[in-house]
Specification:
Shape: globular
Structural class: alpha+beta
Largest sheet: 3 strands, antiparallel
Helix content: 40-55%
Strand content: 5-15%
Strand order of the largest sheet: 3-7-6
Number of strands: 7
């Protein structure tokens, strides 16, 4: 079975829909309360139609809307609003990607990476509980301090979701094992979902970069790129690297060792 067939497999689409409904991000879900209720009236029929459209190459993603949500810092976070069909297809794509990615990254789960940990097909939730991962990360930080790693650099990747280049993402998806047809489908979707318009007219501008902020799927899709950064961060024996989403901490026993790692 090709990756494209796996994406539009009924079991995978139903699993995607179930995980969207069980998502714990209530801020995003609240924006779709009416849409989800309307979809639920004939959800299985709608999912079967999605499968048929996808397998016959008739699925066409819609343009997305955006809302700006205030952050505690006073800046604004853009949330990308996908319709219910597009949310399901996005999650279905990422389900297949997750099954390919986890064997390559699970050795970092709970050791160096503590967020967006794939729970597996049998779980009622897409991700493992973040509360458990956060507590584990705190324990790792305390252990590192006790072992003498008392110098730390803390930083994040500014506007990371918005700056992910689609060609770079496609390169890493191919490395993970996703085939060309599935990559092309996802790139077509991302092109539509991340486009924007000038305020003076209706014409869409297609950037070729960015993934939607808000949907459950984006966290795991970002891991496809972040795992490349993890490989660089974990090299060497004189420093320790940990990451929570795109917040990165590097620990060392001396300032010089930490600075050398940051230069690398």
């Amino acid at each position: 079975m090709s990756n494209l067939e796996k994406i539009f497999d009924l079991k995978n689409l139903r699993r995607a829909y179930r995980w969207i409904l069980s998502d714990t991000n209530n801020e995003y879900k609240a924006l779709f309360r009416d849409s989800y209720a309307a979809f639920a009236i004939a959800s299985d029929t709608a999912i079967k139609q999605l499968a048929a459209n996808g397998l016959s190459l008739r699925f066409v993603p819609s343009h997305a809307s955006k809302v700006m949500v205030p952050k505690p810092s006073g800046t604004l976070r853009p949330l990308t609003l996908l319709n219910t069909d597009d949310q399901i297809i996005y999650q279905a794509c990422v389900n297949v990607i997750s099954d390919l990615l986890k064997p390559k990254t699970k050795h970092r789960y709970g050791r160096r990476v503590f967020a967006h940990l794939y729970a597996g097909k049998s779980s009622p939730f897409f991700y493992m509980k973040w509360q458990n991962s956060y507590r584990l990360m705190s324990r790792v930080v305390r252990d590192l301090h006790a072992k003498g790693f008392v110098w730390v650099a803390t930083f994040d990747l500014t506007a990371f979701y918005d700056s992910i280049d689609h060609h770079v993402l496609g390169h890493f998806l191919k490395n993970v094992g996703l085939d060309e047809d599935a990559i092309e489908l996802l790139m077509q979707c991302l092109r539509q979902w991340t486009s924007s318009t000038w305020s003076i007219g209706p014409e869409n501008i297609y950037h070729g970069h960015g993934i939607p902020q808000g949907p459950l799927s984006s966290g795991m899709l970002s891991e496809v790129v972040l795992q490349h950064i993890d490989k660089a961060g974990e090299r060497g024996t004189r420093t320790r690297y940990i990451r929570y989403v795109d917040d990165i901490k590097i620990f060392a026993k001396t300032e010089d060792e930490l600075r050398r790692k940051l230069v690398q």
